[in-house]
Amino acid sequence: MDKFQKSHDFGYGLQYLPSSSLGTSYSVGLIDDRDGYYQFGKGDRSAMIVSAEQAQLAKFANNPLLGAAFDSANIPVTWRPSELILNPVQYKNLYLGALGEFVGRVLLEHEFGVQLNPLSDPSLFELFDFEIGDQVMVDFKNWRGRHDPSAGHERDKVLSKLASVREKTGHEWRAMIINVNPGVNGKITINGGRAGSTGGSQGARILEVPGMLDKDGQVVLTAAQRKLIGGFLLE
């Protein structure tokens, strides 16, 4: 995990907890997600398991492209027994997010031949993950289970972020919101409307991809979806 942390330059080190049992996983109960309060120990309130299995490292590495990328970046697929283990707040808010960014970047660059660059303006770091040229902002998600990124309030949040980017850069941008995990509905969304198999993306501000991988780590994009994403990138 240390090498993974350094490769993503979080700007500050990940914080760990002592693990006297040399465990590779533990469960915590959620008390206050907003403030990051958890209750340690087993029980009915257990809301999250911190482990390599729950992080889906093996599933991601099962994809040959990602497996090679993990090896190249020295990202371990399993966690070895250690006297320290990642704390729950940073596991959820930093580690899983950074993992989603890594997986998403590798897949998008390979599948569509684009170059994802770090945000040119540091003040935008909290808004999106990467930029493509000077036209498209990209935000990768590591969502699991049911999540509807096409809900109105979610789109409003993205539009607000795009407005902030426009104010900083002086021109309009489009946004791609991409979940690397299996999507619930499996349909790409454009500005809140479902995109048909031959639907175009002309004039769209937001393109949402509910999932790029299946449960076995294989890319699930159809030919029509690839065409739709490619058109959005080239618009």
What do you see in this structure?
The chain has 6 helices and 11 strands. With about 240 residues, it is an alpha+beta fold. A 6-stranded mixed β-sheet has the order 6-7-8-11-9-10, with helices on both faces. A 3-stranded antiparallel β-sheet has the order 3-2-4, with helices on one face. A two-stranded antiparallel sheet has the order 1-5. The model is unreliable at about 1-10 and about 195-200 (pLDDT under 50).
Q: H/E series, N to C?
A: HEEEEHHEHEEHEEEEH
Number of helices: 6
Helix content: 25-40%
Radius of gyration, whole Å: 18 Å
What's the quick description here?
This protein is α+β, with helices and mostly antiparallel strands and 235 residues long. It has helices at 2-8, 57-61, 64-72, 88-112, 152-169, 223-234; strands at residues 16-18, 25-32, 37-40, 46-51, 84-86, 130-132, 136-141, 174-179, 189-190, 193-194, 206-209.
Which features characterize this protein?
235 residues; alpha+beta; six-stranded mixed beta sheet; three-stranded antiparallel beta sheet; disordered N terminus
